[in-house]
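Researcher: We're teaching a course module on how sequence relates to structure. For the next exercise, students receive a sequence and then see the predicted structure as tokens, so they can try to spot secondary structure elements on their own. Here is the exercise chain.
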Amino acid sequence: MSSKVYCVAQFLPKEGQEKALFEVLQSLEPNTLREDGCLQYRVTRQVASPFADGKSFPIAFHEQWADMASFEAHCQRQDIAAFFEKYCQADDGLAADWNVCIYTDEPADFDAPVFE
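Model: And here is the predicted structure for the students to work with:
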């Protein structure tokens, strides 16, 4: 059974704050990439393409974690909690809105062998 989890964390910057928010999010990458369970952690910004014109927040983290425990430990790190407090939840923060979702690559009825 796969234990990997995937996270997409999207951010909607306040008016005129896209560059500043992107830079703050980039600053979270180096320490997060040092975490034992972190397999991928990259902040990206949306670009225009006629082949991908869906609706989304303009900044998104694409994350891959070894397991749910690693992801949840990451979320409880002091600098991650401080980021959300200062830049998302505070009235003078840089983000107008955000959306964090976690995914698995296993089908709902996946019948993998269990090793004990």
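Model: If you want an answer key for the exercise: The domain at 14-51+66-103 is CATH 3.30.70.100 (Alpha-Beta Plaits). The first strand starts at residue 5 and ends at 13.
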